[in-house]
Design goal:
The chain is mainly alpha-helical. It has eight helices and two strands. It has two domains: about 100 residues, no CATH class; about 60 residues, Orthogonal Bundle (Arc Repressor Mutant, subunit A). The chain has a two-stranded antiparallel ribbon. Helix 4 crosses helix 5 and helix 7 crosses helix 8. It is elongated, with a radius of gyration of 22 Å. The two termini are about 20 Å apart. About 20% of the residues are buried.
Length: about 180
Amino acid sequence: MRRDFRQLLTFVQAIALLHQCTRARTEEGWIIANIADYESARQLLSPVFDVSTNEGVTSAIREVVEAIEATEEVSLSTLAERLKLAKTTVSWRASRAIRGGWLVNNEVRKGHPAKFSRGTPLPDEVSALPTAEALLEVYDCTTVSGEGMQGTPPENIVEFRQEADFAYAATGTNDGWEVF
C-alpha cells in the first residue's frame, strides 16, 4: 500500500497539471494541486486500491458470488443466464471465487457440470481511499463546500502535506513538484 500511495500522488500531480490554467501557483510558478485534484484521482484509482483492501474481491467476482443465494446450488449455465454474461466469463470469475473460498463447487465427479454454492462470506466492501469530504473533516470541516465549518479547510494539498506526517514518509524526496 505504501508504494501505491506514490502512484496516487502522481495521479494528483497529473490532474493538477491538466488543470493548470485554473490552479493557483506558488511564487516560483509551481502548480498547486487542490482537493478537487485528489477527488478526481480517487475516483480513477479507487477500484484498484479497493481490491487490495477487500482481500482480492473485485466487483466482478462479488457480482458472481452474490448471484447465488445462500442455500442454493446453481450450474454454470444458470449463473451465466442470471448475469447475462458468456459462460467463459462466468467460469473465469467463478474459478477466482473458488480460489478465494467464496464459492464452492459441490460436483465431485469429473466431466460433470459444476454445482456452485456459497462458501465463506465475502469481506465487507471497504474503500482504501478516503473521500475528499473525509479528508476535510480531519481538518475540522464538516463538508467539502464549507457549510457548517468549524475550522478553516486547507487551501491546497501543500497544506495537507505539511500537516500529515504520513505523506512525508510515503512520498520520499521532492521530485520537482513543490506540492509533494
